[in-house]
Fold this sequence. Notes:
Strand order of the largest sheet: 2-3-4-5-6-7-8-9
Shape: globular
Bound molecules: N-carbamoyl-L-aspartate, zinc ion
Order of helices and strands: EEHEHEHEHEHEHEHHHEHHHEEEE
Oligomer: single chain
Largest sheet: 8 strands, parallel
Amino acid sequence: MTQTLTLARPDDWHLHLRDGAMLKAVLPETTRHFARAIIMPNLVPPVVTGADARAYKARIEAALPEGAHFTPLMTLYLTEETDPEDLAAAYAAGLITAVKLYPAGATTNSASGVADFARVQPVLERMAEIGCPLCVHGEVTDRSIDIFDREAVFIDRVLDPIRRAVPGLRVIMEHITTKDGVDYVRASPENLGATLTVQHLMLDRNDMLVGGMRPHYYCLPILKRRDHRDALLAAATSGDARFFLGTDSAPHPTHAKESECCSAGCFTAPVALACLAQTFEDAGALAALEGFTSRHGPAFYGLPVNSETLTLTRSDSPVHFPAQIANGADPVTVFTPGRPIYWSAP
Ligand code: NCD
Ligand code: ZN
């Protein structure tokens, strides 16, 4: 018996598309299913000015597959040198939808991120005035803090002080991975939201580390223990509109993942919706999927819900997805959750 589930067309509120050949290779995997995505600015060099965002947006539009209906929602990479006037002009022109805060050194291509948070306070105040949201990579980078504790420590040491200093700022805690993150969002006013990834809803650190180390599960923030995953899944399936999908699909060539020093990032775009449907079904919460993938994000960003739809199909036997996508000599391995998936998206 075939079952179907029709959703308002989903959006991805945190996505890495890269540039050049990789952009061309991965973009169709997102545009097939998603109407819009918040595009991460961590290119090398990063997207720091309105002019950079305009040029990157044009490169994305030029790489769109024939007939695709897709809107890239651009972001600026916040640095200690960000010019509030340039940012405000880009926001007023509709060129950017948000600004991204990376603590310096937190993750892939974050060397230009913020080290001294006091130095960006004037920019954050300007953003609060104009209503421009801040997307936050919430991990401290202090070597003395254990990698599994970096999100919880960031909330106490960085995020909460920023939100107290600039209470009018709309903030998205991206890819939260802990119960601490979930609890902090739940206890906060409505101007704080959070995105959740597919891998953090499906996996815990045992999946990555027990019985051999699986590089394709290595991403940042790193997978946490089981009880954190359970808290994330409870939040995603709860219907609370402050939790929504940001896949953080982050392609790296397979050779860079299967290497002595594995790059951080899971490439989930091709399978994200199939995996989520399975995860929500297994949690007895399929009815909550559309809110999470298609309604809560637009509400938080003050954008309309997409009028188009996407229909997912459930088969009687597990679906086989491509193991890799082509990218010249550097194919990219597609995320596999290590359990059968019966759902698929067209
Ligand atoms: C991202 C990337 O590869 O750009 N990697 C990741 O593990 N998520 C960067 C990021 O969002 O942290
Ligand atoms: Zn990311």
